[in-house]
Amino acid sequence: PSSSDLLPLLSSSPPAGSYLAVASSTLDHVGAGGDRAAAMTVIDILTRVDAICQKYDKYDAEKLNGANVAGEDPFARLYGSVDAEISQCVEKAEAARQEKNRATVVALNAEIRRAKAKLLEEDLPKLQRLALKKVRPIISALTR
Asked: How far is 17 from 22, CA to CA, in rounded Å?
C-alpha cells in the first residue's frame, strides 16, 4: 500500500476508550507543546517495554525448557530443571491415563509419585532458598 492509501487511516480517530485513542491523545498532547515528562508517547512506552523484556529475557520459561541452561544463575538452572521435571510428570500422567495395561499404569504412577516426592522434598525447598537470595537485595534496597 502506498502512503496515500494509508492517509485516511492515519487521519481518522480511533474508537474512544481504546489503547489507540489513549496513545493518540498522548501524542496530540505532547505534539501541542505539552509537558513531555507528564505524558509518555507510544515510542517511549515501546522502548521501556523492550528494555524490560530484554532485562528479564533470561528467565523466560519457554526458552529455558528448550535451551541448555548453563550460566552463572543457579536459580534459572534449577527452575529450568524443575519445570522440565514437571512437564515429564504431566506427560507420564497422560500416558498412564490412556494406557490399557494395568501393570504399565502402576509403574507410571510409581514414577510420578517418586518424581513428585523428590520435587517436594528436595528441589522446591532449594528453589525457595535461591529465590529468597535473589529477592533479599531487592527488598533491602526498597526499604532504604
From this structure: 7
